[in-house]
Design a protein that fits this description.
Blueprint: H1 2-18, E1 40-41, E2 44-45, E3 68-69, E4 74-77, E5 91-96, E6 99-107, H2 113-124, E7 129-136, E8 142-152, E9 155-160, E10 169-175, H3 180-195
Antiparallel strand pairs: 1-2, 3-4, 4-5, 5-6, 6-10, 7-8, 8-9, 9-10
């Protein structure tokens, strides 16, 4: 389990480097979120303060919902409000200056890939890149593997339906740091609207 966690953390930290070449490049221009679209990956809002998640608001947090690794810049966050049926374990996030800049979810692999892919298309729209590959296991059974990239105005999302293990896939999202001010503003608007009493 420890090696698996280390591998997941390494994958998460390296995700921006390993992402498809269609990933949005860093820019100094301000980014505007389309139609108020928030960068949500694995039920985590990229660009949000990690302190928003009370289970993870201190580096010494070690309960089952949150654990910090790599000198406090990586955390494991439980799903809210409910643990999704497609998820295998809590999502991992990386932070910079207290802001969540990437998130990775481990999925249940081939058994959930089709429904999960459709759900992601509904959330993120038409993919920028889709690759389908026939993969044969040791028993001779063939499975369709799906690798997908969404290049968004705020960053990118990748979906690998399964890897070396048929029972594990991943969703990885990363935010362009130039998009963080737009996310902060959008969240402030949402918070203000929810705090205003309805007439």
């Amino acid at each position: 389990m420890k090696m698996k966690t280390i591998a997941c953390v390494a994958m998460l930290l390296c995700a921006p480097l390993l992402a498809h070449s269609g990933q949005v490049a860093p820019t100094s221009k301000p980014i505007v979120l389309k139609d108020g679209e928030l960068p949500i990956v694995a039920n985590v809002v990229l660009g949000r303060d990690l302190a928003f998640y009370p289970e993870c608001n201190a580096p010494e947090a070690t309960n089952k919902n949150c654990s910090f690794m790599a000198q406090g810049d990586t955390a494991s966050i439980s799903y809210r409000p409910d643990f999704p049926k497609w998820a295998k374990e809590a999502s991992l996030v990386t932070t910079k200056n207290g802001k969540i800049i990437s998130a990775m979810a481990v999925t249940k692999g081939v058994t959930v890939q089709d429904d999960l892919y459709q759900m992601l298309v509904v959330r993120y729209g038409k993919p920028t890149h889709v690759k389908r590959t026939a993969v044969q296991n040791r028993m001779g059974a063939t499975f369709q593997k799906i690798d997908v990239l969404w290049a968004k105005s705020w960053g990118s999302v990748t979906f690998e339906s399964f890897g070396d293990n048929l029972d594990e896939g991943s969703i990885i999202g990363s935010i362009n740091e130039a998009a963080i001010p737009a996310v902060t503003a959008a969240l402030a608007n949402i918070d203000a609207a929810s705090a205003t009493p309805s007439k």
